[in-house]
Design goal:
Order of helices and strands: HHHHHHHHHHH
CATH superfamily: MetI-like
CATH topology: MetI-like fold
Number of strands: 0
Helix content: over 70%
Largest sheet: none
CATH architecture: Orthogonal Bundle
Distance between the termini: 75 Å
Radius of gyration: 23 Å
Length: 278
């Protein structure tokens, strides 16, 4: 109780300290966003590469992908971060080299969450109705062209809610990059704690991370609405903008008939065929 009373009494001076340190706090927010965005981009690339590899017909390719995914899902993000920061430089030449702290954070986040996202990609592609694969054969499309023109656009709409949750987890996981001398938001909060005390500093951190997480939710909901609209599963973004503020995966799905699916698949296939003839 005394802590709560002290928190209220010191609120004014603490807010002034936040304003005084705002340039450093904003620098920390920028580093957090940069590490999160770059880590998410790397994770997305890894997710598609290894997610598709998990579906490959070649046993060796599937085996390598499975080992990669299980290794990075089964080991701690903190251990991976410390290994890249402190063990990698001690390896014998030419394997050992020093990485920039930002690159260490991006690699650790990308590898760890990319392994989780690979399973999302694999599961989403596997959830596309088998009739779509039959349509690829009926339209004489190559497996690769059919995958990227017909299957992945439908799987993309399915995987976005799960990816949204993963990117929020990645944002929260980025708080550990300060342990490798990267001056992110949490590092700046720790500096603020020395001046304001525990209550205010960590309450400020909760609010800051929450606001950034909601920005991610809004962005990913926008992508989900757009992806659903492009395959005939929902309204356009301008017609359902309120859905931007819903929880991931709760955007309007709309209805679609088999005729709509066939028509859109035929349009995509026709465009692909024209491109191939050109």
């Amino acid at each position: 109780m005394d802590g709560v009373i002290g928190f209220i009494q010191d609120l004014g001076p603490n807010l002034q300290l936040v304003l005084d340190r705002m340039p450093m706090i904003l620098d920390g927010v920028f580093i957090t966003l940069l590490a999160s965005v770059l880590g998410a981009a790397l994770a997305l690339v890894i997710a598609f590469v290894f997610g598709l590899a998990l579906l490959a017909k070649n046993v060796l390719v599937r085996g390598v992908a499975r080992v990669f995914v299980e290794f990075f899902r089964g080991t701690s993000l903190v251990v991976q971060l410390f290994w890249l920061a402190f063990v990698l430089p001690q390896l014998p030449y030419p394997m050992g080299f020093q990485l920039d702290p930002l690159l260490v954070g991006v690699l650790a986040l990308g590898l760890n969450y990319g392994a989780y996202a690979a399973e999302v990609v694999r599961g989403s592609i596997g959830s596309v109705p088998t009739g779509q694969y039959e349509a690829i054969s009926a339209l004489s499309l190559s497996p690769a062209r059919g995958m990227f023109r017909i299957v992945i656009p439908q799987a993309w709409a399915l995987m976005l809610p799960s990816l949204s949750n993963l990117w929020i987890q990645l944002l929260k996981g980025s708080a550990i990059v300060g342990t490798v001398t990267l001056y992110d938001l949490f590092f700046q909060v720790e500096q603020l704690r020395d001046r304001t005390g525990t209550w205010f500093a960590y309450s400020f951190a909760l609010l800051a991370y929450y606001l950034i997480a909601w920005l991610i939710v809004i962005l990913m909901n926008g992508l989900e609405i757009r992806a659903k609209h492009q395959i005939g599963r929902g309204p356009a973004l301008k017609e359902s903008w309120r859905s931007l503020f819903r929880a991931p995966g709760s955007t309007p799905g709309g209805g679609r008939t088999a005729r709509v699916v066939r028509e859109r698949a035929a349009v995509k296939a026709g465009t692909a065929g024209e491109g191939g003839l050109a």
